[in-house]
């Protein structure tokens, strides 16, 4: 069709039709969240009312209104309570919300119910409303709207954690949801009412259960034989399925929402029968217990006879003999990974608010996502739970969660299972012992058999973890002591990257005294320390912590390496302990690429040069610490080119019963030569792969890259003469002019220099030194003197006072100021931000 024909065709169309099309396209373009929510709610409410439909409607509040929690409160029949009958989102306990509120009370739910009007509250209003919540740990916004869907007087409650709360569009969406929710009456069987044949109702406080006739038939129990106790039915189940079944029927493991579980019951003859339980927990009210209601059906015909029973039984048998947490983790991996055809599985313990990975399968880094490979055995295996909100939510809910392919998750989890991810919280008593992550690369369909296997395995593993913790409590105690005494993470360094590894011995349950440390020092210096205390017990670990603290304190005082190690030696000698320690201390100048090191009975450092060649420098060393009180510790020099790797280790990596220490050092140098220093963490892991594990192993690696921007430095010795301050000001003015500092900035710097130098001359004796350092636009002014006394900022100064204003002027002119000990005296410093 030509353009002329097209134009003629348009002219032949009625003008009203053309306008209607334009209006329709514009309306579609202007489609808002409210319109999308309205369409979704119409689709959801087209069928008959049910608890399932109510929950789906509530989920729209999470999608279209950005709510973190949404719930429906309904008046109880013949009572004075508004009861929570359905909810969606995170657990309500995070916000201190109750499962019921008195209608006559002063809560937001009761206020909205009585007035028939919405209630919108922010953090300020909630802070003064003790009835609205208990002890929520965070600020949030609360909305309560009358739910008029079926005229029964219920309320919709929604919570937003966003700083601005619910905006205008959110409120419109909540109003639509409140109209569509159709509040169900509390789903509780009336007393004396007959249950459906396949239904049950369990009182969570007493364990009394009402069951239909079909359920009794599935358990092969007659009505006359049944005593109404849930323990009677549980006693007829296969013992291996009991832990997972108990996780459903115990109130501590339940929250509002549906539950589904498959389990087996024993039969008078023949194999056990598979049953499927579907249930939901209903909250209790005043004087009434919480109830678990649901159905039980025969699932045998839906199952193949290649059952997961054998797998669960094998897992139970392996867990029965598992003595340590690691044994439990390996048993779970063996039972789940191949049957589920998973690509990777990780088990992590929950220690406080942190997850500590105990088993990764496959064990090689290349099988895991790049984020995990780069942080292998460092950050993620000891990560705070709050860093992964999805995992934290699953642990709070306490039930298995499954996310299919394409679900948006945080990077630390999404790449573990791009084809599907399952998270199994591992319950142990009344707490969570940890979590199991199972990931697939290809899109994976989760069938009911797999869900049942996951649920059963989680219950067994959680109980086994609790037993394992009790079994190796001593090992856990000393292991925790070791982790607390070592640095949690290493600092970021100017012009270098450092990584460290520590592996405890696998022989016995006691911990050793190996340690490492990285200490940032002034003027872009860094101290590297590695050491080993004699023995493998709690005393060695305690002494290790004392020596690490002492070396750090002496280093920060500004002493050279030989003085730092000498002070630590005298300290250990005076402690009158029978133990001694070895260490290697290296002071690296990041600006110059040079280093001085001292050995006290320890192995020398190993250098890998940029061309790949390695060197074990020969040097004299002193005796171990704590052996000779007046020992000498000679210093040796090192030269570091950009790209050089410096390796420090303890003898557990290079010495064993089969190989002497010289052969071990040659092997370490050879392996370091063939490594890629671009990924220093992978280099450390490769070196540890050959550890014999008959002794503790500590390893510290530093790659020197050189500083891209080096600071400008000048210093001036202040002589005690009448014009000392004037001479210092002239030196400072010449230096700043040579550095290109503007005249506007110079006046403030001169004032700070005058005040600091004057304070040092008036209040101290001995030598005074001024140091000026400029890096980018930050100028550091430091004045060192021989007095250890710290300057004190006055709290108030009267009009008649003739002094005391110096420190106040320094504080007013500086971005920051402070004081540090320096070789028996102190150094008072101030940092100023220059305009150019």
Account of the protein in words:
This is SpoIIE family protein phosphatase. With 836 residues, the protein is α+β, with helices and mostly antiparallel strands. The protein has 24 helices and 32 strands. The strands form 6 sheets. A 6-stranded antiparallel sheet has the order 3-2-1-6-5-4, sandwiched between helices. Strands 14-13-12-17-16-15 form a 6-stranded antiparallel sheet, with helices on both faces. The protein has a 5-stranded antiparallel sheet with strand order 8-7-11-10-9. Helix 18 packs across helix 19 (561-574).
Q: Record the strand order, biggest sheet.
A: 3-2-1-6-5-4
Count of individual helical segments? 24
Span between termini: 68 Å
The biggest beta sheet, please?
A: 6 strands, antiparallel
- Anisotropy-based shape: globular
| Uncertain stretches of 5 or more adjacent residues | 1-31, 185-192, 251-257, 377-381
What is Rg?
A: 36 Å
Helix content: 25-40%
Pfam families: GAF_2 (PF13185), HATPase_c_2 (PF13581), PAS_3 (PF08447), SpoIIE (PF07228)
Domain PAC: 259-311
Protein name: SpoIIE family protein phosphatase
InterPro entries: Bact_Sigma-Reg, GAF, GAF-like_dom_sf, HATPase_C_sf, HATPase_dom, PAS, PAS-assoc_C, PAS-like_dom_sf
């Amino acid at each position: 069709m030509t353009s002329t024909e097209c134009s003629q065709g348009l002219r032949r169309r009625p003008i009203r039709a053309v306008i209607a099309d334009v209006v329709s396209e514009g309306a579609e373009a202007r489609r808002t969240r409210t319109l999308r929510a309205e369409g979704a709610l119409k689709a959801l409410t087209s069928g008959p009312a049910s608890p399932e439909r109510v929950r789906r409607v509530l989920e729209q509040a999470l999608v279209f209104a950005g709510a973190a929690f949404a719930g429906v409160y309904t008046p109880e029949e013949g009572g004075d309570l508004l009861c929570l009958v359905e909810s969606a989102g995170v657990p309500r306990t995070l916000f201190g919300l109750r499962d019921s509120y008195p209608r006559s009370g002063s809560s937001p739910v009761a206020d909205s119910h009585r007035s028939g009007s919405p209630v919108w509250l922010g953090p300020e209003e909630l802070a003064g409303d003790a009835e609205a919540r208990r002890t929520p740990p965070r600020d949030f916004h609360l909305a309560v709207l009358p739910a008029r869907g079926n005229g029964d007087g219920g309320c919709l409650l929604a919570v937003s954690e966003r700083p601005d709360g619910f905006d205008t569009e959110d409120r419109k969406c909540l109003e639509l949801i409140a109209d569509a929710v159709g509040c169900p009456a509390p789903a509780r069987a009336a007393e004396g009412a007959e249950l459906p044949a396949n239904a049950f109702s369990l009182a969570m406080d007493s364990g009394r259960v009402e069951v239909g006739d079909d359920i009794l038939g599935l358990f092969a129990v007659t009505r006359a034989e049944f005593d109404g106790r849930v323990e009677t039915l549980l006693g007829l189940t296969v013992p291996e399925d009991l832990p997972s079944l108990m996780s459903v029927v115990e109130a501590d493991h339940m929250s509002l929402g549906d539950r589904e579980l498959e389990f087996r019951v024993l039969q008078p003859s023949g194999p056990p029968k598979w049953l499927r339980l579907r249930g939901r927990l209903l909250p209790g009210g005043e004087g009434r217990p919480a109830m678990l209601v649901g159905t039980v059906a025969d699932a045998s015909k839906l199952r193949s006879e290649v059952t997961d029973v054998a797998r669960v039984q094998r897992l139970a048998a392996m867990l029965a003999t598992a003595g340590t947490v690691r044994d439990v983790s390996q048993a779970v991996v063996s039972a789940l990974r191949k049957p589920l055809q998973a690509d990777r599985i990780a088990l992590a313990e929950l220690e406080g608010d942190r997850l500590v990975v105990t088993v990764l399968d496959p064990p090689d880094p290349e099988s895991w996502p790049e984020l995990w490979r780069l942080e292998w055995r460092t950050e993620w295996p000891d990560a705070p739970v709050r860093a992964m909100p999805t995992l934290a939510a699953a642990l709070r809910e306490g039930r298995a969660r499954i996310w299919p392919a394409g679900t948006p998750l945080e990077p630390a989890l999404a790449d573990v299972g791009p084809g599907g991810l399952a998270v199994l919280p591992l319950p142990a008593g009344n707490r969570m012992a940890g979590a199991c992550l199972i990931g697939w690369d290809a899109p994976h369909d989760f069938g009911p058999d797999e869900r049942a296997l996951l649920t059963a395995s989680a219950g067994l593993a959680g109980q086994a973890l609790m037993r394992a913790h009790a079994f190796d409590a001593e090992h856990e105690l000393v292991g925790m002591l070791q982790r607390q005494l070592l640095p949690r993470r290493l600092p970021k360094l100017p012009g270098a990257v450092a990584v460290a590894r520590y592996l405890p011995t696998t022989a016995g349950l006691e911990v050793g005294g190996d340690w490492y440390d990285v200490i940032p020092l002034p003027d872009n210096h860094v101290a590297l320390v590695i050491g080993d205390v004699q023995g493998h017990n709690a005393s060695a670990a305690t002494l290790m912590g004392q020596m690490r603290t002492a070396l750090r304190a002496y280093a920060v005082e500004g002493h050279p390496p030989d003085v730092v190690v000498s002070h630590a030696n005298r300290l250990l000698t005076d402690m009158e302990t029978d133990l001694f320690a070895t260490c290697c201390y290296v002071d690296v100048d990041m600006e110059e690429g040079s280093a001085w090191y001292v050995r006290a009975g320890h192995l020398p450092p190993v250098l890998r040069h940029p061309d790949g060649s390695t060197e074990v420098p020969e040097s004299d060393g002193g005796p171990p610490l704590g052996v000779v009180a007046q020992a000498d510790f000679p210093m040796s020099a090192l030269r570091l080119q950009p790209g050089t790797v410096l390796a420090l280790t303890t003898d557990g990596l290079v010495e064993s019963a089969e190989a002497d220490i010289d052969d071990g050092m040659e092997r370490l140098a050879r392996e370091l030569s063939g490594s890629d220093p671009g990924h220093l963490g992978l280099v450390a892991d490769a070196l540890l792969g050959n550890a014999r594990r008959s002794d503790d192993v500590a390893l510290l690696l530093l790659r020197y890259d050189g500083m891209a921007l080096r600071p400008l430095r000048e210093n001036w010795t202040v002589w005690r003469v009448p014009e000392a301050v004037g001479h210092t000001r002239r030196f400072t003015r010449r230096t700043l002019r040579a550095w290109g500092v503007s005249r506007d900035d110079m006046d403030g710097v001169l004032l700070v220099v005058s005040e600091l130098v004057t304070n040092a001359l008036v209040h101290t004796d001995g030598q005074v030194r001024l140091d000026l350092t400029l890096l980018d636009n930050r100028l550091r002014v430091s004045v060192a003197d021989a007095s250890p006394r710290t300057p004190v900022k006055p709290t108030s100064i009267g009009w008649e006072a003739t002094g005391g204003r110096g420190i106040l002027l320094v504080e007013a002119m500086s971005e920051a100021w402070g004081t540090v000990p320096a070789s028996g005296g102190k150094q008072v410093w101030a940092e100023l931000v220059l305009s150019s």
